Task: inverse folding
């Protein structure tokens, strides 16, 4: 049986037995927060438990490394919509230790793409269209610096309301301990 079949079978049971009822909430976050965090599997439940949030409390945006790479990309749009349309009053950027993006190098990713069937010609077409694949696919060295970069990009965005605090934290994916990188209430970096 395929993974999709397993999921669809479980989903039918989930709906038929009304298991969804404990998750019913509105589209507005009760704690008025939006979080940008990493897509790491270890954070799926741990981050929520470590922050004492449950379904309905927060808006959550995830990507590889919790990295904001473009000021007018889909991540920033999601954060702006959360603030302006979905009643979030604060933004949290939460990276994590032992992040896979800290070990990512663009040449390694490109080689893996080629092994999976992406042609050199296609890669060159993308590069020649003005996309800097080396920068776009590279990770980071220090998670704290990456979090601070994303925080500053959000905080200084021309469309972000200045009164919205933007906090930066790093979570330990083993224990859930949160370390403060920057306190959005104070607008200064913690060293």
Result:
């Amino acid at each position: 049986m395929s993974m999709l079949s397993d999921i669809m079978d479980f989903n039918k049971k989930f709906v038929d037995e009304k298991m969804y009822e404990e998750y019913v909430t509105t589209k507005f976050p009760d704690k008025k927060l939006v979080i940008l965090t990493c897509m790491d599997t270890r954070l799926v439940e741990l981050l929520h438990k470590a922050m004492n949030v449950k379904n309905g409390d927060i808006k959550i945006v995830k990507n590889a490394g919790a990295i904001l790479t473009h000021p007018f990309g889909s991540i920033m749009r999601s954060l702006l919509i959360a603030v302006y349309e979905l009643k979030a009053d604060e933004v949290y950027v939460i990276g994590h230790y032992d992040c896979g993006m800290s070990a990512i190098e663009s040449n390694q990713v490109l080689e893996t793409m080629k092994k999976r069937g992406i042609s050199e010609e296609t890669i060159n077409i993308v590069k020649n269209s003005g996309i800097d694949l080396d920068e776009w696919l590279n990770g980071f060295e220090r998670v704290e610096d990456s979090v601070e970069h994303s925080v500053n990009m959000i905080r200084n965005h021309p469309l972000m309301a200045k009164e919205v605090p933007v906090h930066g934290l790093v979570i330990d994916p083993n224990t859930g301990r949160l370390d403060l990188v920057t306190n959005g209430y104070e607008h200064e970096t913690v060293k």
Summary: The first helix runs from residue 3 to 16. Residues 105-138 form one domain.
